[in-house]
Amino acid sequence: MNILLNRVFPAVLAGLVLCGSALADAPKISLTIKGQRFTPDQIQVPAHTKVEILVKNEDRFPAEFESADMSREVVVPGTSTVSVFVGPLSPGRYNFFNDFNHAAQGWVVSTPQPSK
């Protein structure tokens, strides 16, 4: 048991810290829900990069950021903000929508970055 605590636990803890710092470094993009619509309705992200989308719901009632294309489904309570991590995505267009109001739709457009 001491071997487990002395060797495995520190390794697991270090891995969690590294994952947390990698997520903290993810580019952030803002998306707003207002009047049951996404603004902007298209956001651009760099291909092959994990991105944090900050979804701010300015309406008083809940909404949902859902995407079958990106395998995400997050309820955004009224007048609150949630973080949704997506990617790394291959270049392309990925649909998202509000499952509580299917008229509210948008796109994440993943574009290749220029070579350095």
List keywords for this structure.
49% strand, alpha/beta, 116 residues, three-stranded mixed beta sheet, globular, Immunoglobulin-like
Short structural description:
The chain contains 1 helix and 9 strands, in the order H-E-E-E-E-E-E-E-E-E.
Q: Strands of the biggest beta sheet: in what spatial order? A: 2-1-4-7
- Named CATH architecture: Sandwich
Globular, elongated, flat, extended or rod-shaped: what is the shape? globular
Compute the average pLDDT: 86
Low-confidence stretches: 16-22
| Count of spatially separate domains | 1
Order of helices and strands: HEEEEEEEEE
Structural class per helix/strand content? Answer: alpha/beta
Number of strands: 9
Main sheet properties: 4 strands, mixed
By CATH, the superfamily comes out as Cupredoxins -  blue copper proteins
Helix proportion: 10-25%
- How far apart the termini lie comes to 50 Å
